[in-house]
Amino acid sequence: MTKVGPLRLQRALAEAGIASRRKAEELIRAGRVAVDGQVVTDMGIRVEPTRQDISVDGRPLPVATAKVVYVLHKPAGRITTCHDEQGRPTVLELVPRAPGLHPVGRLDLMTSGLLLLTNDGRLTHALTHPSHEIVKHYRAVVTGHPDDEAIDRLRQGVLLEDGPTEPCTVRVSRDREGRSVVELWIHEGRNRQVRRMLEHVGHRVRELVRLGIGPIRLGDLGLGCWREPRGRELEWLHRCVDGSLTP
Asked: Are 234 and 1 in contact (CB under 8 A)?
């Protein structure tokens, strides 16, 4: 994911790995940063790191690796990891290579659907930190027909072995073949959480798909295919990184 247009100087330093944004501001105030040979102490200055010479204590700013984000439709049977010791196929084999590329969170082996991959560590932290309460949308096909009591328990939170789940939104549709489709919107990210929640109320998951993360939707993206975020999705991801996102 690349930032369009000039960046504030402190952000450029942070993205190059020199220091945190707060520490970068201290470096600027101390007169230790120069742009095109001129010492800069103005916090409001904007720069273009690819076009301007920026240095800290006389040392040139390292060239930052281009940040990328991929939206992938993960198939069941793919491991959500960078490497697998057992030689099983991984999600990284489905997208273009990039230095430092990794999945954002996980989908278990037999779960398909929307998965984000990036080499931007700050974005990964923002999307996975519990305080941001990023909503994930899942659709599960389960055995049986959840009754009103089971649905209410899911909505209010159920007690799993690693603690109670947070309240969530649930929608259920039933068919005549002894199964139901359950959609859940949760903002937690525990291991196999949706499967465990549904099994806790007595309904085994036969198929599970993640349909959305925040405003990013799976849509008609083909199984095993990927795309880059666009429009409102890209704006939202930038807000996540900027820290301007509110739950």
From this structure: yes
Residue 3: band (very low, low, confident or very high) from pLDDT cuts 50, 70, 90 = very low
Mean pLDDT of 83-101: 90
Query: Based on C-alpha coordinates, what's the Rg of the chain?
Result: 22
Q: Is residue 169 within a helix (H) or strand (E), and if so which, with residue range?
A: strand 169-174
| Res 1 pLDDT > 70 | no
Q: What is the pTM of this model?
A: 0.75
Catalytically active residues, by annotation? 108
For residue 210, give every residue at least 6 positions away whose Cβ sits within 8 Å of its Cβ, in sequence order, or none: 107, 111, 112, 113, 114, 115, 136, 137, 138, 218
Query: In angstroms, rounded to a whole number, what is the distance separating the alpha carbons of residues 145 and 182?
Result: 10
* Nearest CA-CA partner of 210 in 110, 126, 127: 110
**Torsion angle of alpha carbons 49, 52, 58, 63, nearest 10°?**
40
